[in-house]
Amino acid sequence: MTVALDHIAVQTDDYDNTVAWYKAYFDCEATWDRTFETLPRGIQERMPMCTRLVELQVGDIRFHVFDIKEGHTLPEASALQYQHFGVMVDTRERLYAMRDKWIRLYQSGRFRFKSTEQPSDYIPSPGEMLCFYAKDPNGLEFEVIHIAVSA
Ligand SMILES: [Fe+2]
């Protein structure tokens, strides 16, 4: 059996801001953009709170960003949810650049963030792995990882 990750779905009540940030931070480009009325009926029935959906792609990573209607309910604080997603970069320099870029975009004032939390420090792990954690404008956490390959 071959299974591969296809996409990460992000829901937001701050759509334009979120789409702009994903494009700026991850260098994504939109591959398609649909309003609720043009979504397949089965998706409409599953996601009645969705008003719009865009696919943003960078390399092999695809984000599906859902615009959800105002008045949605948040999950209870005790509810279990996906904790974060992780993306891999191919050099240490790129890892450092991604953390610097997060801070630069935050400080630019171009985007609204629900959380004021800044990226974590770099966290080393066995196997020459180094990572940091940060949050998207909605407070959804992700991890950026680099694993050095020893010669
Ligand atoms: Fe992780």
Highlighted features:
single chain, 151 residues, 2,3-Dihydroxybiphenyl 1,2-Dioxygenase, domain 1, 4-stranded mixed sheet, 23% helix, globular, binds fe (ii) ion
Please give the structural blueprint:
Blueprint: E1 8-12, H1 15-26, E2 29-35, H2 41-46, E3 50-58, E4 61-68, E5 85-88, H3 92-108, E6 123-125, E7 129-135, E8 141-147
Parallel strand pairs: 1-4, 5-8
Antiparallel strand pairs: 2-3, 3-4, 6-7, 7-8
This protein binds fe (ii) ion.
Fe (ii) ion is lined by residues 84, 86, 143.
Concise account of the structure shown:
The protein is α/β, with parallel strands linked by helices.
Q: How many strands appear in the DSSP assignment?
A: 8
Low-confidence stretches: none
Outline type: globular
| Mean residue pLDDT | 94
Work out the helix count: 3
Given the helix and strand composition, which structural class is it?
alpha/beta
Task: Quickly give the CATH architecture of the largest domain.
Answer: Roll
Largest sheet: 4 strands, mixed
Q: How many individual domains? A: 2
Structural Rg: 17 Å
